[in-house]
Fold this protein.
Amino acid sequence: MSVATTVHPSSIVSPTAILGDGVQVGPFCVIGDDVTVGAGTTIMSHVHIDRSTIIGSDVRIHPGAVIGTAPQDLKYDGEPTIASIGDRTVVRECVTINRGTAHSGLTSVGSDVLLMAYTHVAHDCRIGNNVILANSVQLGGHVNVGDWAIIGGVTGVHQFTQIGPHSMVAACVMISKDVPPFTLVGREPVGVQSLNTIGLRRRGFSAQSIDSLDEFYETLYRSGYNISDGLRAYEVAHPTPTLEVQACIAFIRSSKRGVYLSSHA
């Protein structure tokens, strides 16, 4: 049975917007042309959702959020692009999410994500599923954040940077290189502190998988090699690495900005 959609009379909803069953739109909201909002989503007061934005189901958008507005890029010339948010994501107060540019056409936030207050997701960013961005995290353009990553509050992330899946970044740091998967990154100067062991255990990774990752990063960061030599040494010693280690190797080899070194080096 369908559930009624409700729109507060003070809100403005474009006639070309599509609101799913059970959507609730609070007071003083603006929902622009060609916006799609999935079933069961709650849009609280004073929310602005600009044109061509796609919102999933059961999303909660708190007061003051601004989603899908034009990218803050001087090259942007009004071309049609999109911002999207997956299912069950929570967008807290005063979050800003810009839509993409002609470079990719899309800014995307996955499902089951928590964007805490005042976070900014710039144009062409890709945020995976189950990600947490704490208060006032600022993502530059073209940043990719892998599944289950956590970024601490008041952290800035340089454009085109990659944050590996299952990694955790400390608060109040500036990220200008790629963060390897499954690691903890922080301190001053910024570097890899350790494997994200507690996070991996909480997410059900086996002891064998965690041990293989620990051995991989031990070779990479604690055996006196540079990154390239460390990768080669590990692959010689382990010709059939686990899937998790294979993902790490592929991530590091594909890095264009370089990955962080150990903070203990």
Remarks:
- Residues 199-254 form a domain with the Udp N-acetylglucosamine O-acyltransferase; Domain 2 fold (CATH 1.20.1180.10).
